[in-house]
Write a structure and sequence with these properties.
The complex is a heterodimer of chains A (about 725) and B (about 150). By secondary structure, chain A is an alpha+beta fold. In chain A, about 30% of the residues lie in helices and about 25% in strands. Chain A folds into 3 domains: about 200 residues, Aldehyde Oxidoreductase, domain 4, CATH 3.30.365.10; about 150 residues, Aldehyde Oxidoreductase, domain 4; about 300 residues, Aldehyde Oxidoreductase, domain 4. Chain A contains 17 helices and 30 strands. In chain A, the strands form 8 sheets. In chain A, strands 13-14-11-21-18-19-20 form a 7-stranded mixed sheet, with helices on both faces. In chain A, helix 2 packs parallel to helix 3, helix 3 crosses helix 4 and helix 14 runs antiparallel to helix 15. Chain B has about 150 residues and is an alpha+beta fold. Chain B is globular. Classes of the chains: A alpha+beta (about 725), B alpha+beta (about 150).
Chain lengths: ~725, ~150
């Protein structure tokens, strides 16, 4: 891999002030404006809350690295600083990492979602570290009167080999901070990486393992009030009348306020407001359709046959292909609604004051929380600060800002600092779900078992487009039609880890297994042949990298010993999502007439692995998540009301239900392409295809436990 | 409201709360011990696990009035310097993703290993399956319990 030369334009690189302690304080101004500099000059004090840069070096050698994106368990607070420290050549044992607050003057895309943080920031973070290292070297060169080119760095020390001189970054920081910011810096060659690619432990381990206050729910402020909110018990209902007399009379209750269709009980402790909330007497009336899951089944059937599909992609002549087919395969796949169920329920702190608003809490999109709060109050966003706490799981739920805005509403109404807390029941029944979806796939095979035609119709709910029309196998089939139909449901929906593909991948990869079976071909060879065709004779746009997809297929097939094992049934699946590629092989045996999942092999291509420990966690966690929800996840509705509301009625996967998982990565040196989501989509297919091989039973709907061969088996 | 005198982490605390207040919320809202987490409120997830006289107990359904003179240990008091063998193992194996459930996992594992210092994998699975981890860190939880067992002995 060639050494990368980067040009960090002076205009975009903002040199910040030397700190009071004589340190170096560097940062990028991503929006290309220097307006913020004076404020930063004034605000630059070690340990201050509102820092605005990526790194600071104190005179005593302590290096502080700021991580701008919310930490939701994807380990960004470790991997981002690793990238900066790598190029800085810093001593990792003397680094403090700090979660930055929302600041769009200094950072852009302070979002956790779409597996996009590392790909977005990779080069920026490297430049931040490399630029600081260059300045430290220049400072040493000036002091020692030697050429910069003769200096090397390691573990926060600049060295001059010829003279044996050494100086620590802390010693050089003050002088370095007075130098001009270099216009271009040399980034490291990959072979010289010391940190990137290693397994580095979570920087917050100690705080997590000793119970320090890290999470939104752990945030307390003197004089803060607690609020719980009764939202409509059914989607499609609205408040008719509220009787809060009994609730208001209960101990510790300060007020009961109503906004929109919500009734908030505000008081002095969590338990008191919870009891008072249970004492509210609210009458509701119908506002929209009150949907039940059985209605959804009927809606899906109607829309599958609707002539109002929106064409998403059309190649060749599908009608002719299906007319001329030697064999046609047709199947339908369906999944239910799912709540996100992060273990830390929704919560947020807001203090609406005359002069501005303070927001503190767990959010994947602090900028959205601020924007919606500003809109609600009719004030400029600059009047609002957002402090991101560590997030106790998100899975997409905290891309929504509803719960932060609720805190703003309540604080504004009661004129006090307020933390809104959702109970587990509130969290599970409060909406913003992964919507149910149904797919119909059709494939036309010629006499040799080649797939000459492919049709997919997706019927979504509030999904926009439930297909990914340019994904595989698009590009590999001459005649193809992908369309979709939408149902608008009053049940609120939201992105859920690997939106759309969290179920589409299962459906598609299971269907391709059916087609390979019908064609009499090995499932892996069948996919590889399609990819070869896409490479040699591409049809229309191809939005995935054929070689990278082949790479993970071949790696997992080799590691799993695909097709070479006796006494065990293997199932295959591969998927491209969020710019990364993951292939999986599931292994199943039959025990007492029941399929038992023994092992999942996974091969991932996310480009360069930044932190091997975190990357393995994302792969394994994604697989466990994909497996658990495919097996058990099921939120059903009766007249608009969710029928499950806590972990006694809604089943999450547990430790004794996970198979062995073996993870491998393709090593191709490509810039990182993200890993928070891509391991999840392929899992359901790898498992279901193995179960088919073992039992002859084809699982087309989720959750699997409601289908043969699991139904009625405990 | 009533006054409760509680023995927590070797110290004496006082709380003026209603008798049915779960110990969890007394710890969090009244005593500032927020390491013990709320996850479900119905003893299903284990995030709120504390030790009461050495027994792993779900504090979300344990009323403060039932605590009496019992000795309560929370994650903050499991060790003085965060160096209990289970905490050390959790760090070494790098178990946490979001980290929210891990205090409960650690308290469950610590009580378990005290009673059963040399557990089999099946015994570990049976006990640790009572705690939910939404991020799916189960493989590392199992590995960390095994590692902690070697540190305890």
């Amino acid at each position: 891999m060639a050494t990368t030369q980067t040009n960090s334009s002076r205009r975009n690189f903002l040199k910040l002030a030397a700190m009071g302690s004589g340190g170096l304080f560097l940062g990028f101004n991503w929006i290309g404006s220097a307006e913020a500099a004076p404020a930063l000059l004034n605000g630059a004090a070690a340990g201050a809350v509102d820092f605005n840069s990526y790194l600071s070096i104190a005179a005593d050698g302590l290096i502080t690295i700021y991580s701008p994106n919310p930490e939701v368990g994807q380990n960004i607070k470790t991997s981002f600083p690793m990238i900066v420290a790598e190029e800085l050549d810093a001593d990792w044992t003397k680094i403090k990492t700090v979660q930055a607050t929302l600041n769009d003057k200094k950072f852009e895309r302070q979002v956790t979602g779409g597996s996009g943080a590392v790909p977005h920031s990779w080069k920026r973070l490297r430049q931040a570290g490399a630029t600081a290292r260059q300045m430290l070297k220049e400072a040493a060169a000036a002091q020692w009167k030697v050429p910069v080119s003769e200096l090397t760095t390691d573990k926060s020390v600049v060295m001059h080999k010829a003279s044996g001189r050494k100086a620590s970054y802390g010693e050089l920081a003050a002088a370095a901070s007075k130098l001009a910011v270099p216009t271009d810096v040399q980034l490291k060659d990959r072979k010289d990486f010391k940190l990137i690619g290693k397994a580095v432990r979570n920087v917050d381990n100690k705080d997590i393992l000793t119970g320090k206050p890290l999470f939104g729910l752990d945030f307390y402020r003197e004089g803060m009030l607690f609020a719980m909110i009764q939202r409509p018990k059914a989607f499609g209902m609205k408040v008719k009348s509220v009787d809060a007399v009994a609730a208001k009379a209960m101990p510790g209750i300060v007020d009961v306020v109503t906004f929109k269709n919500n009734v908030a009980v505000v008081g002095k402790s969590t338990w008191q407001v919870k009891k008072a909330k249970d004492a509210l007497k609210i009458e509701y009336e119908k506002d929209k359709d009150l949907e039940s899951s059985s209605d959804h089944d009927k809606i899906f059937q109607d829309l599958l046959n609707s002539d109002k599909g929106t064409v998403r992609r059309k190649d060749g002549d599908v009608d002719a292909a299906f007319k001329n087919a030697a064999k046609v395969v047709k199947s339908e796949y369906q999944c239910p609604f799912l709540p996100h169920n992060p273990l830390e329920p929704m919560n947020f702190f807001a203090h609406v004051r005359e002069d501005g608003v303070e927001l503190v809490g767990p959010t994947q999109t602090p900028d959205r929380a601020r924007g919606e709060a500003a809109k609600l109050l009719g004030i400029p966003p600059e009047k609002i600060t957002v402090q991101m706490t560590r997030i106790g799981g998100g899975f997409g739920r905290r891309l929504m800002a509803d719960y932060a805005v609720e805190a703003v509403e309540v604080s504004n109404l009661v004129k006090a600092p307020v933390k809104v807390i959702w109970t587990r029941e509130d969290d599970m029944t409060g909406g913003n779900y992964r919507p149910a979806v149904r797919y119909r796939f059709e494939a036309a095979l010629d006499g040799q078992g080649n797939m000459i035609g492919y049709k997919l119709r997706g019927v979504g709910m509030n999904s926009g487009n439930p297909t990914r029309e340019h994904n595989f196998p698009s590009g590999a089939v001459d005649n193809l039609l992908i369309d979709s139909v939408e149902h608008e449901s009053p049940i609120s929906t939201a992105p859920w880890r690997a939106p759309i593909t969290n179920f589409l991948a299962f459906a598609e990869q299971s269907f391709l297994d059916e087609v390979a079976q019908a064609a009499g071909k090995d499932p892996v060879q069948f996919r590889l042949a399609l990819l070869d065709k896409a490479k040699k004779a591409p049809v229309g746009d191809i939005k995935y990298d054929i070689d990278r997809m082949k790479g993970v297929i071949e790696l997992v097939a080799e590691k799993a010993g695909w097709g070479k094992k006796k006494d065990i049934s293997q199932g295959f699946s591969v998927y491209f999502s969020h710019a990364s590629y993951v292939a999986q092989v599931g292994e199943v045996v039959m025990q007492k007439g029941k399929p038992v999942l023994k092992k999942i092999f996974a091969a991932g291509d996310c480009g360069i692995v930044v932190n091997l420990s975190g990357a393995r966690q994302q792969m394994m966690g994604g697989i466990v998540d994909g497996l658990g929800h495919a097996m058990y996840g099921n939120l059903t509705f009766k007249n608009g009301t969710p029928e499950q509301n806590n972990f006694n009625s809604y089943r999450l996967i547990r430790l004794n239900e996970v198979p062995e998982i073996e993870v491998h990565f393709v090593d191709n040196g490509i810039d990182p392409t993200g890993l928070g989501e891509p391991a999840l989509p392929p899992t359901g297919g790898a498992v279901a295809n193995a179960i088919f091989k073992a039992s002859g039973k084809r699982l087309r709907n989720q959750p699997f436990t409601e289908q043969e061969p699991f139904k009625g088996v405990s | 409201m009533a006054q409760y005198k509680l023995q927590i982490n070797g110290r004496s605390y006082q709380a003026d709360v209603e008798p049915d207040t779960p110990l969890l919320w007394v710890l969090r809202d009244h005593l500032g011990l927020v390491g013990t987490k709320y996850g479900c409120g119905i003893a299903q997830c284990g995030a709120c696990t504390v030790h009461i006289n050495g027994e792993a107990t779900r504090s979300c359904v344990y009323p403060v009035s039932a605590v009496g003179a019992s000795k309560v240990v929370t994650i903050e008091g499991l060790s003085e310097k965060g160096n209990h063998p289970v905490q050390l193992a959790w760090d070494e194996v790098d178990v946490a993703q979001c980290g929210y459930c891990q205090a409960g996992q650690i308290m469950t594992a610590a009580a378990f290993l005290k009673k059963n210092p040399k557990p089999t994998t099946a015994e570990i699975d049976a006990t640790m399956s009572n705690n939910l981890c939404r991020c799916g860190t189960y493989h590392r939880i199992r590995e960390a319990v095994k590692l902690a067992a070697t540190k305890t002995s």
